[in-house]
Amino acid sequence: MGSAKVSISVIDQSQPVAASSTSIPAGVIGTADFGPAYVPVNFSVYQGQFTEIFGTAAGGAHLGPIAVNEWLKGADNVTYVRILGIGDGKRRSSSTGQVTNAGFVAGEQQVQSSGLIGTNQYATLVGGATGRTYFLGTFMSESAGSTIFSSAGYQVSGENKAIPIVRGIILAASGVSLTLSGNYNSSNAPSSTSTAPNGGITGSVSISDSKFTILLNGFIENDKYTKSITSSFDFDADNHVSNILNRDLDKLEQAGHCLYSWYSVPTTLAAITGSGIFTAPTTKGDITKHDTAFITTGSLARDTSNASVPNFENFRERYTTPKTPFIVSQGFGGSKYPLFRFHTLDDGAVANSAYRIAVSNITPSSDDNYDFGTFSISVYDISPTIANLSSRLESESKALATFSGLTLDPSSPKYIASAIGDQHTYFDFDRAESSQKIVIEGDYPVTNNYIRVELSSDLIAGNVPDNALPMGFRGYGSLNTSGSVTSLPSTNSEVVSGQSDAIARARIPPVPYKTTVTQGGNLEEYITWGTHLETQTLDNPNAGVFDESIYNFSTFFPSFHPTNANFLVENSTTADTFANNLFTLENVKVYTASSTYADPDLWNSASYIRQGNITADAATKTRAFSVADLENNSASSAIKYAKFSLLTQGGFDGVNIFNADKRNLENDVVRREIVDSTNQGGATSGPTVVAYKKAIDIMGSKADTDIQILTIPGIRHPTISNYALSAIENRFDAMYIMDIEEYNQYNVVITGSDSANIGYTATAFDARSLNSSFGAAYFPDVTILDPDDGISQISVPPSVAVLGAYASNDSIGSPWTAPAGTTRGTLGSVIDVNITLEETNLDTLYDVNINPIAKFASIGPVVWGQKTLLRRSSALDRVNVRRLLIYLRRKVRLVANKLLFEPNTKATLDKFNSLVAPILTDVKNRGGVERYKVQIDTTTTTQADIENNTIRGKIFIQPTKAAEFISIDFVVAGRTTSLE
After folding, report:
1. Structural domains present in the chain
2. 133 CB contacts (<8 Å, ≥6 apart)?
């Protein structure tokens, strides 16, 4: 019989009832700009609480938040589940690490206007060749006085040889192959038959303005294959690659390409040159241009990898969460211990460019008997740093969150894990499907809305010295384009002898780090060491405006393969040594003057030495910064300026980013995936279908959520709505408010802004033959005010407004009163109904169990029906009766739970009876039932039941039905008739 439990069923004997208290939340499934995915989160307030976690409705882009707001106008809590891309919803491949149907593959065919995967109409390479991932770059050398490459270990100082630098990563559309126009190319005209290059393609760059030309082979323009794009590598130029190359995800095929990431290198720090690599231009080409640009794919065939070379096309990953590198301690005998790192609470790509995390107030212990020091952690919004100095100063005083006096001492109330929170609540997809569940890891609840902390295994194990302090961070994940076995192919142009592998050595620019904490020569407290966010200059490095290209170091690149080389290399010594990306305050060169410690008056001369080779120099009184400088009693200025900041990296939404509907998990995509099942994941296992089904599973699990109503605003396809209805039936303690598919005048499902035909819509819905008292459907869509600005008008599906009607009904009535009519069904937030219903329309809809939303001149929009989806005539074919039974079932279950493990005796039966009867009496007194009878005694619980440790009982009720039809005869009386 299983474990101890209470089992309550409903026997319908009404032939010719379902409710819940306001303390039980409604459940809403939907999309959002922010917040955790697949984790139910409960709220009681929309503005400032819900919006703080999940964001706003974004002008109607997200319907779930609007539904949340409507419910909370009349109720006190709601549970929200955000969805993102999870592919087939199953564990990742153990051999490849990828997730089936998740993410995308660069260069694949895309969804066409028909809704089906098809050939790119803008390009027709022979055979419809798939596109590839391309690396666009230039050969460069440091400008005079600059160490941008040599400090990163890219270039030996003084060596007269250019190095290949990746300046952008371009994803080509299917049917398009990219090359460059150059002096040595056999033909600079695009070709209709060109395939992806097997080696690096070099092209010319203008000496005067850094211009170059990309050729889109196979791209159709004016009925010819002549598409070319001229752009510039000069970051300050109007025609810089970030301004000219396509960055609109929705125009991948229309433009033939998409610039996925790009990296700026200021002309003041490095110049484009082929010195030591390429031969000088000859009369064969333009002598004012040099072949110092390159574009290339990976060295392997498309969508393949091996142990040394990554697959640059494979982005088959479910959603991921941005995180920082591990923050590390000072050196102990040459070792720096990883201490902790931060993860954003926002899943997906949105937080890649949202936060800057600063470590400050690093203070060693002053107690000889206590080694643990203290430090502060602050979270800042990146965007305010775009403006001038005063704006940056203002942003520093307005941290989103600050945690002061933190320590690594686990016995302290300021222990970093307890002060910030280390609990990670997530849905574990990497289990057998039958065992997938919500998991909570960590010991301390998260105390803020932005980040959680992850402690290193060394810190947890107690391997870290007590006097360790956060002094830097490990290298950001770096792109694996250059290694012992070349990931990129060799140069296939005329080069200097011995330089045939020039392109194969290409790398992205180093992540920029602050070189000084001065601005215009003056010390500024707002400046932190670490990641540099402004445009770089030699003479005044902190004076620039925000450099948008910094976001590209946070962009998602795949790192999921368990054995083969990955596109992104992270959390390893390779990431630390790549470009000398390991940051530590111990690489700051300080002046000691006449003191043993760093001189507080000479911080304006301090500088960051990226390679860290700082030798103490008694003559110049310089050396590397150390923790000892913070121990100086007069070192307040050392503590003031010994701080650093870093960014999060690697968030991904797990979807095909090149289709807006797929990216936004729209209802139309559900239909497309089912219709085009061969190409879009299978009839019922396409990524969007599965995303909603998995969220429904969570809402359907009593172990994960307690809800009284479920709605999925805007999701109308029967595959999803039937699945949701079944899940709610299995719960047996909630109702599902369903949005239905609408059909136009041609009897075709509406996928855009077409007007619905009532007759065809009703007929199609009736043909579904739904038969359940746990769901209710409504029609039509309505117009509502934007909950965020209170001004804009947004068209929403009926479930949004009806959810508000249910909440209003419960606040002024009871769960067993009808959420319809002029008293409890008026829709105060609704400005208009999108289709005006005549009386015959009301009948047409009601006859097939669709509840109309009508508009009457005197009362405005109102819910004008309360039928469930039950097809047979029964008391349960009304919403108020089903909600009554749900209410009673919940109440009786609570009572029964108290009696589990009590002696199975007559006394217990009598107690059970006495506890249940008042519940029914209360409902009867409040108009929920006409009559009732509670029978829990020896007639319902037999000796056989006692032997099986079971108590049985019966509750008979006669629900109070709502008056839905009122008939009054007016009688015209004669003169002699008495009317008294």
Report:
1. 26-83+665-881 (3.40.50.11780), 119-297 (no CATH), 327-473+519-647 (no CATH)
2. 106, 107, 169, 170, 171, 172, 260, 297, 298, 312, 313
